[in-house]
User: Fold these one by one.
Assistant:
Number 1:
Amino acid sequence: MIWRWHRASGRLFVRTTDWRRSEDRVPPAVCRPGKPDPFGGERLQLRACRRSRSAQRECGPDRSPGEAEPPWTGPARDGRWKTRGGMHPDLARIISELRAAEERARELAEESSEAGWQERPEASEWSAAECVAHLNLTSEAYLPLLEEGLNRARADGGPSPSRFRRDPFGWMLGKATGPGGRIKMKTAAAFVPGATVPREEVIREFSRLQGQVIDVIERADGLALQRVKVTSPFDPRAKYSLYSALMLIPAHQQRHLRQAERALSRVKV
């Protein structure tokens, strides 16, 4: 069997003396017996190797019609990209990071004593309890802004892109406030934790707020989050996209959970 490219027709051909034998070797989904070979002899004319996504979902390369459709990742019928769970992969990634942060906070609380959880490594530094309490205050401030942005995104309409991108200011802020950021910024008074709260209560509140943020993200699936601007709860002069705001929350949590981990490693209790 010889593979030849015919420039005039722009098609790929299989030359053979007996096309029936070649048909047994080439999947019928990609070839069919055709017209006389322009190079002489009988041949098979290959169909397009790259079929449409809808055709792949309908039958698939290794399935016959009527078989169950396996989980897949790719553009759905409405043009949006889907994960195996049916959500946009960028949003599913944020939810995964939020759940990982919740699990990490719970592990830190379980691995420490109540006294160590509340103790500051230095007088000018936060304790692990204050780090998580600060994250609770941040989530409480973000939630109404996220709800407002979600309502505006739903009213504006428009599908979500195949890939979300942060706006420039949201990207820079994410780099500055994320776990790898080295820039120290003074915390606004409204986000400085006050009186100490028992460890179990802080973690329970953290889990509750994480669930509310995840609920917002799940309801935001399919919306054009990159088009809606929200105001930062830390500085009313700062505005960035709703998607950037969703990206900032888990990044900010990772930074302060690392701070809590360092604080626990330095206390004597």
Number 2:
Amino acid sequence: MFGRLAALVLRHRLTSTALLVALLVASAFGAARLRIDLSSRAFYGDGEQASAQLDAFTERWGHDDGTAIVVLEVDDGDVLSDARLGAVRSLADELRGLSEVQRVDAITDHPASAAVA
């Protein structure tokens, strides 16, 4: 089957090339107009119960689009050791230095952490 297709393409090189170019142009035009929607509405839809619950959540708590939570887990020792708290402090300071970051809350910012560290 592929042999016959190859023979057909070779016999009609100019037509095959023109068809391929037209297909590529049409694909590029379609790709340029393609929009990706990663919003919650794209997953839940507008009329779903989950969408209504999300609206209620957002109205009460605000948008969480720009929120990232970093959770620390250790296999050995203590999360509150000097070395690990120092690493958390360094990470928090580095995040604060980024222009895209508006706010950083870290355990090392809590007044009681001064007694531990």
Number 3:
Amino acid sequence: NSFCTLLAMQLDNSDGDDLLLGDGSEQRVPRDLVEPAAVYRLAFHPNAPILCTGLMNGCVNVHEWRRNETRAIASLPTHRGAVCSMEFTRSGSHLATVSSDRHIKVLDCASQAHVIDIRRKNSPHKFPLSILSVCTSTELAVGDDDGMVSFWDMRMQKPVTTFLEHADQVTGMIYFEGNHQLVTSSTDTTVGCFDMRMRKVAGFSEKRKDELNCITFLPATNSVIAGTDAGMLPIWKYGAWKRPYDVHSKHPRECEALLTYNDNMFFSGAYDGTVRLIQHHPVRRVLTNFGSSRRNFNTVSGISVSHDRTLLAAATTGSTVFFYDIEFLGDESELDKLRDRAERKHMETIRKASAEDRVPDSDSD
């Protein structure tokens, strides 16, 4: 089938003229993609020009994107409830999904067959599933609307451990494979850190005033950042979970989507339909906006970046997916144009220090 064929393609064997951005005389990104139902989640394939959308009607739609267009590949009835979260495995061979119907499913991308379907009767979760994280090739973390967090061995298709620390919907998950820890956010206003190897709570934050809708991680400063309805983005230092050490202020309200771009910048979505690229260090501020001219006033509910880091897709609380050209973000000289003189000088110093750190010591006799 066509989905299987696309996944088997070797991108480096494509025609040299087959460029996403063309010669500049055409539209640089695909046109808006209108789905038959509200789009709950987005996921770009990690190795191929494929975008999957998880819909309110339980379907996963598969699209190929090329140059300035998208092409529908498949519409896969997956769940009886809304597709609340989905994520590709690192290799891209499988797509895991969870739903309000409480099923956990794993799709084989080549055959389009569901190779795993964990039914709700075989799950400890008694409430709709809200979030998942593909931790390793054989392990999966799942959260639900009542705050339960479970960690699954997908070889046995059984939960290894469960946690009941959160008192409301689990909204975000980040797995740190190096120390086997899972960091979560919840609408109960807390952040949790769970040690999956030791099967214990490694840390938990104090309650706050604002519900936490999502989280992301910036490696440069070991910062975990959360999105809130009020717009303020609290920042925790990894390992110091009691309370945030700072906050990104002046962010628009209803931040329901965050996505790390690199170790110092992240994307955020808000109620106004705009995706913002935010710099964390040395000066915390918005570098640029995507979508502010689209007159789209639906809240951004999902953000994903393509495998080649040239295309940004944003889903809103409606049924439309918007695309934005982000190829220029890979060019530091282009980013410097968005910074003031002091910031540019600071970033030049950081880049110089990083380059020196990467130079191996010379051998001496």
Number 4:
Amino acid sequence: MILFLFLKQEVGATKANEVNVRKVGILGTGNFASAIAQRLALAGYDVTVASRRPEDRKLTLRSDVCLSSLQSAIHLTSVSECLERCHVVIVALHHEHFTSFFTPEVAQKAAGKILVDVSNRSTRGVQPSNAKLLSSLVPGAHVVKAFNTLSAYVLESETAGGSRMVCVAGDDAEARVVVCSLARDLGFECQESGGLESAWQLEESVLTVFPEWRVAAVIAGIVLAFWALFAITREHLVGTTSWSQFPVKTMNKVFGACALTELALTYLAGTCAAFLQIYNGTKHKRFPRWLDAWLKARKQLGLLAFGQAVVHAILSALLLSPTYVKSWYAPDALRVIVPVNQTGDIVVDLSKAWMTWNSELSLLVGVLAIVLMGMLAVTSLPSVTRIMNWAEWRFVQSGLGYVMLTLATSHLYAMSLHKWVRAGLPIILFRLSFMSIVLPTTVIALRIITLLPCVDNYIQRIRRGWERKTLSSSSDPAHGAENGSTSSKQAARTSAEVKSGASLGTGPTVVSNSETEARNSQTVGAETLV
């Protein structure tokens, strides 16, 4: 009997909590508050919007709530009544108003409640975070940081652009679970981001503008400036090419050289990391910062290379005529015999101009390279990557990636090799086509070296945790016994290896220092395109 009464009380308490959770309060009546109130009402929640002046905000709230059917499901009350009715309260206020809003009386009534901070800062690098500030003002509440990565437009419209991932951070595990459930009910993906200390990073991430593209943009800018200066000097300052041909003819060569160079740099990063691991004899030594940043930028660098390759292909199609690329077409011997006493016009048909075999081969491998680059770019999209297993992803990004680089390099060889042989040294050193082929050829040669069984087996042993013993360590009899435990400890803080950072063609399987060692055993030998 006692057990029955106890279970009855527990079930009753659980139902009461569920009913209480379905009631959500919102502090504030701004655009974000109105948008999330509508979203909550559509999801079946009982919404209470609180304001310090509810009578003044009643008309504003009614005009903001577009659907008249939802106006009855959204109640506008005072702050005190909202805190009394709801266990989960969304704080839709600017952080500047936290201090004046949460007076000691309000803080006392908010004790034990789940306060969801959705605010963001206007400047970077400010400490503490808004969530920490709110937690200090209301020490008895369970403060959770969430929904700050969403905009009011995303809440109001399914077609609006912007992130739909809700990151949840809070010190109370049960409060995080409640907020995650709330986010999923609203139709968003949810990700737990740890304790309230992570709130600062969530607020900081909203203010950053493409941070992962900075290194790639700098590299691409340097490459573009170098080849543009080289082409201008070679074609216009030293050569006889007219400046009127600079926008299309000259820049077409520049974009082609930039695409091939950036593609080679994308793969070279992983190869350098592999040789560095061979030199160190271990995978547990962190890469230098410059190499770590390079590894992280491979995806973006590959995308930039793909974009420039597309521009190069379009411009080449526009210039495809004997007038611009005379060497691509077979010369036609024209013989005209004028009859004696001919007084009329003689019409000669010059429209038949056939391309040479090396020109057609160059176009073929160039088109194939562009198609493969597009495939690699598509498979790097998050929505596509999710449905691929590791073997499929590695085959596309690593196997097809190097095939694509080889085809792109062969495109230039087929087009210009006969010219280099005819010109000879040192003339070819001043030609853009020859200088731009050096780096990708070197990358392919290094890749072939890493594929040799003796080298590849050595790299795989290192990536599986084997370490090369030095003379000092081999003389220590205790070193062998300690090696296993040392490796397991170092594995927890290891930096970089394995999966090649999802970029447009990245060399031998290596990731940056930020990747976890837990994936090392699964990601041996991949490169990535985008």
